[in-house]
Amino acid sequence: MAERKKFARGSVEVISNEQVAAEHYCLVLGDEEMARATSPGQFFQVRLKGEGAPFLPRPFSLYDWHTDDSGRRTAIKLLYKVVGKGTSALARLKGGGDVAVTGPLGNGFGPPQIGKRHIIAAGGIGIAPFMALARRYIEDSVSPGDIHLLYGARCQSLLVTHDEFAKMGVNVEVIADDGSCGARGTVLDLVKKHTANMRGEEYVIYSSGPTPMLNALVAYCQAKGLNAEVSLEARMVCGIGVCNSCAVRVKSDKAADGWDYKLVCRDGPVFSASMLYIE
Questions:
Q1: In sequence order, what are the beta bridge partners of 43?
Q2: Strand partners, 238
Q3: CB-based contacts of 264: which residues, under 8 Å, 6+ apart?
Q4: Is residue 24 helix, strand or coil?
């Protein structure tokens, strides 16, 4: 397979960097070539510039595209949560500044399966890859009514941007660990509810979120033989498969222990749930 085109930019303009909820920001970066090249599920390595900036870049999934009045994609949108020094510094950026960017990187989600229900199971900031996915699928003739966003977080204030999915016609159902949004439970509870009365071939599941949530969902899908694609989160340095810092276990018939390693940055971040090794 030919390598997908990626770009390394020493300077990309920050169009805007606005807070969209508590601890959450949407960064818009103006690079039309990158915007045209990227697909849902791929990611970018973003590095701050200037004295005192963190040395290592941070990986961020494509959240959405920014378009001009003619509908041409002119910029990329990255949704992120402030969790440490790097993202705290990123949150202080203003429009008109610039960052260094490499991408798009990794492999994205597969094409839509027309006629099936598309169930998006997102936890917390794991919602980040799915605005672009929903938009692309609707453009590819999937009815918005056949897309279901099942979205959960620890509390209601950490449920972000789901109203934007509803505006697109996507079915949205939210849940919180503490019940603050009216429903108490986990994303997996919602997945089980939605899949209980359907045959596995009637739908496909897409998921991203914290590792414990993904492990539980992958185990459920494997036990039920369900078709699912999951976008994994991992700490990474290079983003291109050199440093091996983002290795994850996958099933392997060739290995004596029944498992081997793949790299999230190069082989993912999107994997079929059936291939992941869960102990």
A1: 61, 105
A2: none
A3: 106, 232, 233, 234, 236, 246, 247, 248
A4: strand
The pair of structure tokens assigned to 144 is: 């918005």
Overall CATH class of domain 7-104: mainly beta
* HSE-up of residue 79 (Cα within 13 Å, Cβ side): 23
CA–CA separation, 4 vs 157, rounded Å?
Answer: 37
The CATH code of domain 117-233 reads: 3.40.50.80
- Kindly list the domain boundaries of the chain, sorted by start residue: 7-104, 117-233
Integer Cα distance of 217 and 223 in angstroms: 10
How wide is the angle at C-alpha 217 spanned by C-alphas 215 and 223, nearest 5°? 100
Packed helices 211-224 and 187-195: angle between N→C axes, nearest 10 degrees = 20
Tens of each residue's pLDDT in the chain, 279 residues: 445 678 899 999 999 999 999 899 999 999 999 999 999 999 999 999 887 777 788 999 999 999 998 989 999 999 999 998 889 999 999 999 999 999 999 999 999 998 899 999 999 999 999 999 999 999 999 999 999 999 999 999 889 999 999 999 999 999 999 999 878 999 999 999 999 887 778 899 999 999 999 999 999 999 999 999 999 988 777 888 888 888 999 998 888 788 899 999 999 999 999 999 886
**Fold agreement between 7-104 and 117-233:** no
Residues in the chain: 279
Per DSSP, helices labelled H in the chain are: 32-37, 85-91, 130-139, 162-167, 187-195, 211-224, 264-267
- Count CA within 13 A, CB hemisphere, residue 131: 22
Provide the residue type at 77 as one letter: K
